[in-house]
Amino acid sequence: MDNPQNAGVVPAGPLRPTLLTVLCILTFIGSAWGIISSISSYMNADISSQIAGNALDTAKENISKESDNKAASKMAERVISGASDMLNPANIKKNALFSILANLLTFVGAFLMFQLKKVGFWAYVAGTGIAIITPLIVYGPANLMGIG
User: Fold this and answer.
1) Quick one: which of 110, 104, 134 has its CA closest to 122?
2) Confidence class of residue 34 from pLDDT cuts 50, 70 and 90?
3) Tell me, what's the pLDDT at 100?
4) Cα distance between the two ends of the chain
5) pTM, whole model, 2 decimals?
6) Could you tell me if 123 and 108 are in contact, meaning their C-beta atoms sit under 8 angstroms apart?
7) pLDDT per residue over 35-91, tens digit each?
8) Could you count the other beta carbons within 10 Å of the beta carbon of residue 115?
9) Nearest-5° angle of CA 33, CA 124, CA 22?
């Protein structure tokens, strides 16, 4: 039986669709993880660059020793060169800062969408756009690794 006290009670505002709730929660988790990961990348940029640079130097030496195909060797050197540009500590730090900004925007956007604020969608889109454009800004459009 219905409770007469609740008769005619209408919810206080529009209901949030379940899909939006799930997507916002996933965005909260992903954005928070991205912020933490980017802060870690920024803090450890010098060490990461040094370790990966040593590995790339070893790979470059092995390719030049073992490669009979000149075209394949040139392509491999181009990819390694692009990776070397990406592993520059300054580039790692710039990428991390842009990533922090993008993740903050998507987090704020998801929070606002969770509250059914339409401006949250545009904040989310701005954060996603920054995340897409960042590699082109930091590494340049000619860098194959940055485009990938």
Assistant:
1) 110
2) very high
3) 97
4) 61
5) 0.74
6) yes
7) 999 999 999 988 888 887 787 777 777 766 666 666 666 766 766 666 676 778 888
8) 11
9) 65
93 contacts: CB under 8 Å, gap ≥ 6:
42, 45
Residue with tokens 């195909």: 69
Q: Is the separation of the CB atoms in 109 and 126 below 8 Å? A: yes
Residue 28 CB coordination number (10 Å):
15
Above 60 in pLDDT, residue 33? yes
Between CA 139 and CA 45 the distance in angstroms is 15
- Whole-number Å distance between alpha carbons of 135 and 16: 35
| Interatomic CA distance for residues 143 and 65, integer angstroms | 25
Residue 8 per-residue DSSP state: T
